[in-house]
Amino acid sequence: MRIILLGPPGAGKGTQARRLSESTGMKHLSTGDMLRSEIAAGSELGLMAKSFMDKGDLVPDETIIGMIEQQINDPAGVLLDGFPRTVVQAQALDAALEKAGSPVDKVVYMTVDVDELVTRLSSRAICESCQTPYNLQSDPPSKEGACDKCGGKVVVRADDQPEAIKNRIKVYEELTAPVVDYYRERGEVDEIAATGTPDEVFEKLTGVIGNN
Ligand code: AP5
User: Has this prediction a pTM greater than 0.90?
Assistant: First the structure.
C-alpha cells in the first residue's frame, strides 16, 4: 500500500505519518528527514541541500527523485511525507510506480489555515537524532532539550525562523498546491481539516484511509 500525505508546512504530516507508521507497520518516508540526516552526516548531498533548505526553498527535483526512487517499493507499504512536492516529482513517482505495476492507493490532503501554520512552526522543535517533533508551548519534551523517545538533542530547525517560514508557505502555494490539483483531477484526493488535537486528526486520517 502507498499513501501520500500532502499539505502545507506545519500541517502535521510528520506527526501523523509517525503515528500511522507505528500503528500499521508501514514505512515512513520523509524526504525532509532524509535530507536532515544527510546534513547531520555532513555528506556532499547534505551540504548542497542545506543551502536550499535553510532559506525554505525546495531542493532540486532530480536530487529528490534519485533519493526516494529506490525506497518506494518497500514490501511493508510506504507513507510518503513531503514527497511529491512538485508536479515534476509527481510525474516521476507515477512513472516509477507504473514500472512496479502498483499505483498510489490514497492521497490525503491535510488543510490548516495560514495563521495556525505560522503559530505551529514558530513554536516547533525537533529531535536532531530521530526527528520527533515537539511544540515548545503545548507539547514540550519532558526534560528540557532532550527527546522523550531517544534522549537526542531537541533543537529548533533553521527553516523555522520567521523569514524562512514565510518563504516556505509561498513556495508551497506556488509549487506544491498544484500537486494537490494534479491528484484531484484524477479523483484521488481525500481532504481532511488537520485541526484539533493530534489524536483527533489521527482519527480523521484513519477514517479516510479505512474507507479506501
Ligand atoms: P519537510 O521536513 O518536509 O518540511 P515541511 O513540509 O515544511 O513540513 P514540516 O516538517 O514543516 O511540517 P509537517 O507537516 O510535517 O508538520 P509536523 O508534523 O512537523 O521539508 C523541509 C525542507 O526540505 C523543505 O523546505 C525543502 O527545502 C526540503 N525538501 C523536503 N522534501 C522535499 C521535496 N520533496 N522536494 C524538494 N525539497 C524538499 O508539525 C509541525 C508542528 O505542529 C510540530 O510542532 C507539531 O508538534 C505541531 N502539530 C502537529 N499536529 C498538530 C495539531 N493537530 N495541533 C497542534 N499542533 C500540531
Answer: yes
